[in-house]
Amino acid sequence: MLAMRGGRIVAEYTRMLGYSLLVKPGTARAQVKAVLAHPVALQEVKPWLDREMPTVERRPAASAGAAAQEVAGAAAPGLAAMGPPAAARIHGLVALAQGIEEGPHNVTRWWVIGREVPPPTGHDKTSLRLRTSERAFGSALQALAGLTGRVLAIYERPGRTTLDGHVYLIDLAGHAAQEPLKSFLDANAGFDLLGAYPRCY
């Protein structure tokens, strides 16, 4: 989304994540010697692994899909992956345990991408993109501080053009078509509008 041109965030929704312990068919839990998962997933399932499989090796993978693919292609039955049920269907695996670390703390926000920004609802969020250097970011924060709306979140990603360049995603309370955000965006061309949409939370 940070690199996209033309599209807009038109909605957001949250989804609770749950992990399953995925293995090749016919593999018993006692045979599992190593579990593969994305590093974030390994942290989220750590309490379950500590309790249920404390001696198993934990290996990071690039993604849940990559972990499931490696398990599916392994010659020996000693590997397992932590991932969603869809990964099992795609890679021909089975779940030995389901719903691991499913809870209110394990929720991911998703965006719906469209063309037209929806009209204000009275309870909205605006997402902006700012490409700037570390030095100039302080001035950008001062400009944001002058808004009467609340800054909800700031996320940083590498700019990939200079060593000190960054791309910031900034979520603000309010709708880009309404004041004070409308005047702010008119006066600050460095902030790109990614979308304005009803707030989910």
TrEMBL record:
Q: What is its EC number?
A: 4.2.1.51
- Top enzyme class: lyase
Q: Which InterPro entries match?
A: Preph_deHydtase
User: At the top level of its lineage, which domain of life is listed?
Assistant: Bacteria
Q: Which residues form a coiled coil?
A: none
Segment forming the signal sequence: none
Q: Which terms are listed as keywords in the entry? A: Amino-acid biosynthesis, Aromatic amino acid biosynthesis, Lyase, Phenylalanine biosynthesis
Keyword Amino-acid biosynthesis assigned to the entry: answer is yes
**Domain Prephenate dehydratase, first and last residues per copy:** 1-115
The catalysed reaction is: prephenate + H(+) = 3-phenylpyruvate + CO2 + H2O
Q: Does the keyword Chloroplast apply?
A: no
Q: What is the recorded name of this protein?
A: prephenate dehydratase
